Amino acid sequence: MFDEPSAQLPLWSDRDATDGWGIRESRRARRLTVRVFHSGRVEVVVPARTSRTTIERFIERHRSWIEKKRAEARRNAMPAEAFPPQTIELSAAGEAWRVHVAGGKGRARLEPVAPGLLRLSGDVSNARAVQQALQMWLIRRAADVFAPLLERTAREMNLPYRRLAVRRQRTRWGSCSIRGTISLNCCLLFQRPEVLQYLLIHELAHVRHMNHSARFWDLVAQHCPDCRRLDRELLDGWRRVPSWVFRDCREPA
Ligand SMILES: [Zn+2]
Questions:
Q1: Which CATH superfamily does the domain covering 87-244 fall into?
Q2: Which of 102, 196, 225, 247 could form a disulfide with 92 if both were Cys (CB 3.0 to 4.6 A apart)?
Q3: Ligand 1 centre and the CA of 95: distance in Å?
Q4: Model confidence at 170, in pLDDT bands (50, 70, 90)?
Q5: Model's pTM, two decimal places?
Q6: Is 28 helix (H, G, I), strand (E, B) or coil?
Q7: Could you tell me the distance, in angstroms and rounded to a whole number, from the CA of residue 250 to the centre of ligand 1?
């Protein structure tokens, strides 16, 4: 979804720094573009060596559009979630986990004690530690859920991969390396099962075609006729990810 960040220009102004504006210089950008994220953050991407004046004029020209999008983002903002979460719904796996806060001493830890039941024990007033325990569990659970699905899909497509890696990433859902390592984002657990299945097919198709050529998409479509629509659904998939997965939860519960 993102270009690699190149040289960063300073933030727009002091006010904007707190207000979530950023200007990013990109070597690949051919023209100025602006996007407003669901969080309300605004990012202006500019070709290398664009002058301040050009950037200012660009923003002025698009200011009403930007403000409209930011207002929309504020309206759509998710209601504040409880932390620690009381339930964790992993749509892709058809699972809903209840989090039982047992308390106790020591660093927060999270363990499954029954199907659909997690016990959170230890000092839960350390929100950061609770969050890390949740994140670690999420990655482990994702690996357990993804591995058999990926294996089965690889067999069906007759495309071998070397290794599965599960990561927690903010910007990409999956990747396939030249050496055949398939990386999957643990946040796929929050997507619909069809969406996860599509992404497995997408990454496995990269074992044969390391690009997004017409032949690549033909192969994906052979195994997933609805691939284009499911791919678009992933653009919005970040909205299904609970805030504890990325945002710092430093406030006590
Ligand atoms: Zn791809």
A1: Metalloproteases ("zincins"), catalytic domain (3.30.2010.10)
A2: 196
A3: 27
A4: confident
A5: 0.70
A6: coil
A7: 35
Domain residue ranges of the chain, discontinuous segments joined by +: 14-76, 87-244
Alpha-carbon distance 21 to 43, whole Å?
6
**How far away, in angstroms, is 167 Cα from ligand 1 center?**
16
pLDDT in tens, 44-86: 999 999 998 999 899 999 988 988 888 888 777 656 678 899 9
The tokens 């660009």 sit on which residue?
A: 58
State the chain's maximal CA–CA distance in angstroms.
61
Q: Residue 205 Cα, ligand 1 centroid: separation in angstroms?
A: 8
Distance 121 CA to ligand 1 centre (A): 40
Residue pLDDT, tens place only, 176-229 = 999 999 999 999 999 999 999 999 999 999 999 999 999 999 999 999 999 999
CA of 57 to the centre of ligand 1 (A): 35
